[in-house]
Amino acid sequence: MILIKLGGSVLTNKNRKYSFRTHTVKRLIKEIKKSDIEDYIIVHGGGSFGHPGAEKFDLNTPDPKSPAEGMARVQLDMRRMNNHLLELMLDQGIWGISIPGGLITLFQDGELHELDKEIVQRYLSLDTVPVAFGDVTIDKKRGLTICSGDDIMVGLSSLADKSVFVSDVDGIYKDGKLKEEFTGDMLPLGEYDLSKKKKGTDVTGGMNEKVKKMIEISKHNRTYIVNGDKKDRLRRILDEEEVTCTEVKR
Ligand code: IP8
């Protein structure tokens, strides 16, 4: 079983609200289809659909503004984004099933508390491809919070033997050098190691938070980050071929 996280930075143009990168996403779906993998789950992030609204309503803080309206708006934006992806998958004969993060998770003070893996497994057993995504969800303390695609990856990690994070960078840099392997003791990343690309809003913590979650995931499976903007890298990593990437290890 392989978990594929399609990051918001490859699915959308993060500097332009609601800008879905149809051409790139079509290619990434083709790469998945062309690869030899059979059982996989797709997870995606929020990009310029989820993050601007989450920021506007402070949904990732203990004290959101107009929480009911914020929840309704951001949930709608995320479902629109998910629909774009599902449509492109369907066009290529991949039967994706929408799994909103808000319906399979429960949070406790901003941290993932529970994730219903059984729902995901049942869709898998029906020969479909579950497509779970970052969302607004219920928080037992705060009322609501943001569930990132990375939280979903953590929650599903015990089901998989490999996790692939598809991003817009070649991997993780330390002291300006791309690392083939990255371990927890190399954190935190310095200013110099973070991508200089302008990324738009990101309410869920940026690269340091992502890498911490990847380290958590690597307790259960082999965990990689690869550049989805470069042709064929996703397919190569899925097929266990040599490719530029970083493997994250505990
Ligand atoms: O892009 C965030 O998911 P992420 C989801 O994986 C929302 O951090 C709703 C902003």
Features:
four-stranded mixed β-sheet, binds Isopentenyl phosphate, 250 residues, 9 helices, eight-stranded mixed β-sheet
Give a description of the structure:
The protein is of the alpha/beta class and 250 residues long. The protein is built from nine helices and 14 strands. It has helices at 8-11, 22-34, 47-56, 67-91, 101-104, 117-125, 149-156, 206-217, 233-238; strands at 2-6, 40-44, 96-100, 105-108, 111-115, 129-133, 135-139, 143-147, 162-167, 172-174, 177-179, 181-183, 222-227, 246-249. The strands form three sheets. It has an eight-stranded mixed beta sheet with strand order 3-6-2-1-9-13-14-12, sandwiched between helices. It has a four-stranded mixed beta sheet with strand order 5-4-7-8. The longest helix is centred in the N-terminal third of the chain and has 25 residues, at 67-91. The radius of gyration is 17 Å and the shape is globular. Bound molecules: Isopentenyl phosphate. Isopentenyl phosphate is lined by residues 8, 45-46, 50-51, 54, 74, 78, 134-135, 146, 148-150, 203-204.
Write the layout of secondary structure elements.
Blueprint: E1 2-6, H1 8-11, H2 22-34, E2 40-44, H3 47-56, H4 67-91, E3 96-100, H5 101-104, E4 105-108, E5 111-115, H6 117-125, E6 129-133, E7 135-139, E8 143-147, H7 149-156, E9 162-167, E10 172-174, E11 177-179, E12 181-183, H8 206-217, E13 222-227, H9 233-238, E14 246-249
Parallel strand pairs: 1-2, 1-9, 2-6, 3-6, 4-7, 9-13, 12-14
Antiparallel strand pairs: 4-5, 7-8, 10-11, 13-14
Helix pairs in contact: 2-4, 3-4, 7-8
